[in-house]
Amino acid sequence: MAGQSDPHGSAFSAAELEFLAEDEMVEIVPNMRMDPLNLICGDFGPFRPQIATQVPMWLAVALKKRGKCTIRPPEWMSVEKLTQVLEAERDSERFFQPLPFHYVEISRLLFDHARDDIPDVYMVRSLIEDIKDVRFHKIGTGLEIISERTHALKLKNLSAMEVNIVRPFVVRALQTFYKLDSPEMIQESDRRANRRPQAADHGPKRQLRTDR
């Protein structure tokens, strides 16, 4: 994974996060008749025309590509809901609004594969981008409080992408502070201070003679 090949980068790549998000359930409306699918991850169906059913995102995308269904966007992807979330994010400087953990990846998948199923798609996309920007700004502000006295950091309601970006930085910062505050580092600092050369003592200074 990305985190294994690049210890200073994010834990997962964008493609890996999207792959994980494909297991999220969404609602589709089939336009065909098909028996249930018995898969390792679960049973889905039966599929009947115009009868909504829940399936994983990856299956919804596969059926959509074949023209076998339409995908119903989640309730939180409406203009009304997203506008409320954006206003709440702007009003609160410290708290994050609850959104699906994979809201970024889910919206991207739907924009890529089911654009025609999303009402007001351009407004929805714009609102999601604005929400991301506001949340990233608050994350950056929250990270400014990290200091040598910080032992843990709690940021509630972060999404997968946000956690993925923040976690490597926070972990490295806390590890650095921990090392600097460890007894071994303090003792080493004291030893170095004690080894500093002292000013040479040449004995009492001779008084200068003055002519009377």
From TrEMBL:
- Domain GINS subunit: residue ranges: 76-175
| Ranges of biased composition (kind: Basic and acidic residues) | 188-212
Does Transmembrane count among this protein's keywords? no
Recorded GO cellular component terms are: GINS complex
GO terms of biological process kind: DNA replication; double-strand break repair via break-induced replication
Q: How does it assemble?
A: Component of the GINS complex.
Q: What is the protein's name according to its record?
A: DNA replication complex GINS protein PSF2
Lineage of producing organism: Eukaryota, Viridiplantae, Streptophyta, Embryophyta, Tracheophyta
